[in-house]
Model the fold of this input.
Amino acid sequence: MKIITRHWGKINPLKIDSYIRQRGYEALQKAVREMDPKSVIDEVKKSGLRGRGGAGFPTGEKWEIAAREKSPEKYFICNLDESEPGTYKDRLIAEKNPHQVIEGLLIGAYAVGAKKAYIYINGRYAEQAEVLQIALDQAREKEFVGSGILGSAADVEISIHQGAGAYICGEETALLNSIEGKRGEPRLKPLFPPVSGLFGKPTIVNNAETLANLPYIIRHGAQNYAEIGSKTSPGTKLFLLHGAVKNPGFFEAPLGIGLRELIFAKEYGGGMKSGKEFWFAQAGGASGRLVPSGKLDQVLTYDNCEYPLGSGSVLVVDKTEDIKDYLFSWADFFHRESCGKCVPCREGTYRLWEIAKRIRNGDIRERDRENVEDILWTLGNTTFCPLGKFASVAWSDAMKMFPDKIFK
Amino acid sequence: MQIKINNQSFECQEEETILAVCKRNGIRIPTLCAHPDLLPSEGVCRMCLVETNQAKGLVSSCTQKICEGLEVRTETEKVNKARKINLELLWADHAGKCAFCEKNGRCELQNLAKEYGPDEFKFVPRRKELKPNDELDLLKDNWSHAVFDDANPCLARDSQYCVECRRCVRVCKNIQTVEAYGLNKRSSKTNVGTPYEMPLDCIFCGQCSVVCPTAAITEKDETHKFEEAVADPKKMVVVQFAPSVRFAFGEEFGQPPGTFWEGKLVASLKELGADKVFDTTFAADLTIVEEATELLLKIKSGKAPRPMFTSCCPSWILFIEKYFPEFIPDISTSKSPQQMLGALLKTYWAEKEKIHPENIFSVSVMPCISKKYEAQREEMKASGTRDVDLVLTVRELARLLRKKKIDPSQLKDQNFDPALGISTGAGILFGQSGGVMEAALRTAVEKISGKELGKLEFEVIRGDAEYRTAEIEIGSMKLKVAIVHEIRNARKLLEDLKAGRADYDFVEVMSCPNGCIGGGGMPQPTSPTARKARIQAIFTRDKNMPLRKSHENPAVKKIYKEFLGAPGSEKAEELLHTGYVNRKK
Amino acid sequence: MNIQKILLRFGPKAENLLAALREIQKENGYIGEKESKQVAEYFGISEAQAYSAASFYDLLETGKPVKKIIRVCSGGVCVSERSLEIIRQVERMLHIELDNDAHPKYKLETMSCVGRCDRGPVMEIDGKIFEGVRVEMVGEILKDYI
Done:
């Protein structure tokens, strides 16, 4: 079952007509001509679609909050700031079929009553931003974007906003600050963006992959969609497989797939590279947990499972590797990407990085273990936004799973 | 609504934060970034974390609003663990040289450290000069981290001490709208500073130094200059102190805000070696007489509708000069009391006492940071040399006394030296926002109407609103007045004037919250409650003074008779008035 | 470079600030004190806000770059593709050390994931990205820049 990737390779991303030939923008037509905003939201709610950025918040419910707000000005933002290490699914979506995201974005903006929409794209994705810009220009020509979409009363203007290199801007409130020309620091919640977001107005921020599901849902109906994947996390998901597997790359698979299947099934990872023995997998990028071989039957959904699927990236590590290299990798990343706002994250990620460098060089000191435990605890429990917790997840698992391989 | 804190019920109102409720009820929660003048809090220091029954994790009590059924626990194992670790992380980033620090004993971080006992050597100190050579490798990427800036007459910044609590950034942006500071860079390199680490170029109100919890931003300490002058046998050290100082100085020595310590101040200064102690309040009376005369002239000449602005706040003057130079012609040319007294000291008094002005070392003790700047202005050399040689803040004076092991509470009260030491209640009012206006009105109304005022309190202009306006009827005349404190309100007023939304005859502006009693050089903590108590003490003092109108001050009358002639005379112009410079960039 | 000309391509609205800064970065190579001042004036914001924002983002330089910056991705996927060995190789060949600012001409840093994990490991010199870098290729890549 393919939803996100169904047209990839079949269409020319630079030509809107090739998307239209695949019945592209039919969902938009259906939404603005045959459905009122409320019934679009109801449809999305019924579909059970959940946010693909990692948290898995039900999309329709989020929309409903913003739709209820009385403000004449509302914003809708497509979050394409993908910067979780090991994740490039949104980049693929933008370059292989930009119109699918734009169509989803238009449907969403129509549903909540936002006249202005943004695509916030990772500052490193310059080529993809160009592809999107071309797609946008073509969509405007066809009267899908702008005022009076397809002769209806709906107006949605879209602009592309490029980031400038900061992981934290993927966090929705930091992203809003970034659009407002400020430092990309997360805001205090509540208020939540659907109530008070960009420039203080009700704002929806949806991941690009989430939006790419919408044309399918509107065209084929919520019922059809809800039957795909797992009951509580319907639909498909783009997974990215890396490391010691035979076929690394991207795969679209129904949610609820087991980690073992993803790594070992022929149509996905195809098993371990010859001569490599599975050690652990990390699901969800640098913020993801470490999954030992005994837990591979874990299914990947957005429910409160032991091992959240996060962004959908899975790194498979084999037994010849050195955990210290990965400890450094994680600490190095979060230390650089901490926004510096709150004490435990700013100072804690720095200290972790400092210790990680020494551990890798074999310079281990008497109190390092205790200090690492303290830092991980404070990162996990006291930071302003979730970045601190993310920074502690993989380290905490590693400390539990193989302490002897770290402090030796 | 009722909530439970540590199993006890408390009454509270909607929209209150947990911290606010705890504070009101005397429940101790440590804070670093929260400050009562800077609400709502931002929750960046993570010291005020508590446990609640509403959330799985810890929440910051300074940002978390209360709700029905809330139960809070402020001292649990988890809470204390969080506070200790976060403090240890900060401590290592700060790793103070406490013994040599200006804030030793009065530093909020140090106090927290005493309370929570962080492990001092848990992490390697990050800051520059603390490291033994073998730690260099760990620290080299922080070499650029420490910024020291004292290329201005007023403030010293040393980022080694900074804990990135952002209070200074917020006070400068939200209250003063100057935005001299910002958050620079990202991650562990995040630093509070000026853009491109340029030397500080602001209005020097010093509010950043009042809210700074550590020694990252302080007044430029000049106490050594006082010590040197006292030690110099050729120098006669003459000190003046401002009206507001006597209502707050005691706080530095454990007295409650509003304690009236005039005699103790005089005694302390004498104990430090001052030869004479005069009262800036006397010069405040003089300022009123000059300024009221100027105002009357302006009204009579019919130059209105342009207003006249007060001129005694040097940060306000700088604000006009740097940001709104088009209003320079509207500022009263009367010097501030500090500079009037300074000028008279080295002319009138020196002549009378037959002392060469060069042998006078003139010191003022001020609630203010920018008085340091004012004293250095080129125009302030009526006597040929600097009229005021040294300006000390209240905090500096207290530091000097502590260093010399002088405890003012143990000293017997002493009186001002009489020559320039007599003052009125009107002059005392200068210490708080609205005081200059009220003092001026007491004089102006009597001069215009020719009749004696019955009730002296102008209740219509009192109160703590930040932007107050009133119409004062004087006979057939109506005087439109406005009083603002904090630069954000001054900016609003100027914009109102520019847009023609308002017109006034006379406007008093004070840069600091509630005027000088909330000044940048005042004791820490200066909170709304402390300011309120100080203001109350000023009103009480005014009420109890035998003389309450500036023009009735006998010393003022004497100086006009003996030396100046009349208000606005040529001599007065030369010594007591000044001009301003367009400094817009 | 005429900064004013660049600025005029954008409306002076807050939401255009980052785009304008990016454009100045692209055409001027960095956003210095002078540029920042013009940006602040044009957008009607304080210099502190302009610098605060500019200095936050990786892709904006706030000073004229004086060294060749060599960056290697330290993300988990690149590490699994041996990017840490690439770092060692650069260190050996240029006689420099990761994160050490001592060398007058070169600086070696790690960088965050740029979303090209399917073509890793990734390194960057002077803004140019190299994909699928192998240890053996490092010498050849550096040759063009040294």
Notes: Strands of chain A lie at 75-80, 116-121, 157-162, 203-207, 236-243, 249-254, 278-283, 289-292, 313-318. Chain A touches chain B at residues 166, 183, 185, 188, 335-344, 346-351, 353-354, 367, 371, 374-375, 377-378, 381-384 (CB under 8 Å). Chain A has 17 helices and nine strands. The longest strand of chain A covers residues 236-243.
